[in-house]
Amino acid sequence: MPTPVRQLSQSTVFRGSIFHVERDRVRLPNGRTATLDIVRHRGSVVLVPQPDRRHVILIRQYRHALGRFIWELPAGSREAGESPARAAWRECGEEIGLVPRRLDRLGAYYPTPGFCDEYMIFYRCRSLVAKPAAMAQDEDEDIRPRTCSAAEARSLVRRGTIIDMKTVVGLQLVGIL
Hints:
The chain is α+β, with helices and mostly antiparallel strands. It has three helices and ten strands, in the order βββββββαβββαα. The protein has two domains: 36 residues; 130 residues, Nucleoside Triphosphate Pyrophosphohydrolase, CATH 3.90.79. Strand 1 and strand 2 form a beta hairpin.
């Protein structure tokens, strides 16, 4: 089905290491024109690391956009040309110090389609083993992993300690919530 919107112009207004922003001028189906800013992102992976069915590993990470530390599932952007499964394996090692021998794809979603094309692919990570020695956290990360029981994770969501939507979705996908 063809798009009901006609693009009149497009320009890049910002180019960063993880995403870029395009400004599109479009004609809408109702005949009006609009300027839309779109965040273009190469995609990401969200990990649900489970040492066993009754536990999950969360991370405490500083999120500058919020100005605070939050508890969340490990996640990260895919590198250029990197497969989602490879990104999941790499991010798991970097963020929790363990890599999965088994990855199960759980689903994929657009978290903010109103202004961003990021596609998040969720993976359950199982049969976790020590990461290769050469893997390290990114230099802009200060991450502390913690193994929680399913009951603890549910409590963190109920109390409003977990405020990150991807974490809530990931916990739902594995049946913790």
